[in-house]
Amino acid sequence: MGRRSNPRFVHKLILGSLAICIMGFYCFTAPTLLTTNSVSLASCAQPYIHVWNNSATEKVQCKPKVNLMFMKTHKTASSTLLNIIFRFGEKIKLKFALPDGRNDFFYPSSFFRSQVKSYQPGQCYNIVCNHMRFNALEVEKLLPADAFFFTILRDPAKLFESSFHYYKGYVPQTWRIPGQNKLKEFLTNPKRYFNPKGFNSFYLRNLQLFDFGFENNLEAGDPRVQQSIEYIAKRFQLVLISDHFEESLILLKDALCWQMEDLLFFKLNARSTVSVSPMSPELRDKAREWNSADWKLYRHFNATFWARVEAYGWRRMEEDVRELRRRNAEMEAICTDGQGAVAPEDITDERMKPWEPIGEATILGYNLGPDVDQQYSELCRKMLTPEIQYLTDLGVNLWMTRLWGWLTDNILSL
């Protein structure tokens, strides 16, 4: 008699096979989807916007920037920032270049403008902001010449911990790592477990460089890493740091000439504390060493970030961050039921439940307060709406994402 199969392994094997089939379908159809032509860019309709004073402490008038490219990196608080961008774009009726069928632009394939929902050659957009593997030449063909490019980075040690747990259900080579603390085991001897040619292996090394379209299996000393950093510095007018999210928003406000009310946020797509693995200083060092190219990228832009803060003014920054926190606390009291972020099973409205990955990670969401004042009801709902539902509200048919959700709910949970 043969050995009894492990049901959990069988479920994962089935799910992995389905994932490969689905990805294979996309690879098969990609050649026609990615065909693009050289065309003249249509002029974008510019909404009427007021010139305003965007500083509480200085009398400086400016006109808000409305043509934006936000390079949405993975596991960097980018979903929270995306919600801010969605709300701003909706408020003044800007035109979004949105994905089609899913919540990203065929990631991890390189971005092509034909992946945009209802794309027509020559069409112009105001905002591009969903997950993609960056391809500057294709993005630039969607936006006016004055578009403002910005992005956000995170300490690679924190990002690796988050990515490892969030995506490990989608990375088959992590399934065979023994022990209770798979993260520690992997970082103790990464070359034993890591296969750069494995399915979805990019999630396990230098993910930020990969998102920008560069080779991710490089050491920090490789000259291509420095070339990549210089390219990003030249192409992006602002690089934010998620480890200092509120300061980042103030710098963004200053660069875009937005108002404080445009920056208000609730933390979205965040894991519960029990889903986060504490990292010792030694383990953080190992994570940075393994992701040394990302660590070099991060250190460069962390330095430019603090140089911007200094130019902005330390006291001015402290005052603006304090004001942002005060306004956010007001919105929390107005919008929520007072419980803060809660687990999905404690969210009463199905539409407010966040997307959850395969595995043990619990993604938190919010309950809308029972007696929200009518003047705030629409704003509160938008601020609390998870990314997937917001994209649906913007008109994206997320059939691919929903199919994946059905597979995970009905196969892995058996």
Overall description:
This protein has 414 residues and is mainly alpha-helical. Helix content is 44%, strand content 5%. The strands form two sheets. It has a five-stranded parallel β-sheet with strand order 4-5-3-6-7. The longest helix has 27 residues. Helix 4 packs across helix 10 and helix 8 runs parallel beside helix 11. The radius of gyration is 22 Å and the shape is globular.
Write the layout of secondary structure elements.
Blueprint: H1 7-33, E1 52-53, E2 61-62, E3 68-71, H2 78-91, E4 96-97, E5 127-128, H3 136-140, E6 148-153, H4 156-167, H5 182-188, H6 190-193, H7 207-211, H8 223-235, E7 238-241, H9 245-256, H10 281-290, H11 292-312, H12 314-335, H13 374-384, H14 387-393, H15 399-412
Shape: globular
First and last CA, distance: 25 Å
Strand order of the largest sheet: 4-5-3-6-7
How much helix, percentage-wise, in residues? Answer: 40-55%
Radius of gyration: 22 Å
Low-confidence stretches: 26-42
Structural class of the helices, strands and pairings?
Answer: mainly alpha
User: What is the number of beta strands?
Assistant: 7
Question: Keyphrases for this structure?
Answer:
single chain, 414 residues, mainly alpha, 5-stranded parallel β-sheet, two-stranded antiparallel ribbon, 7 strands, 44% helix
In short:
This protein is mostly helical and 414 residues long.
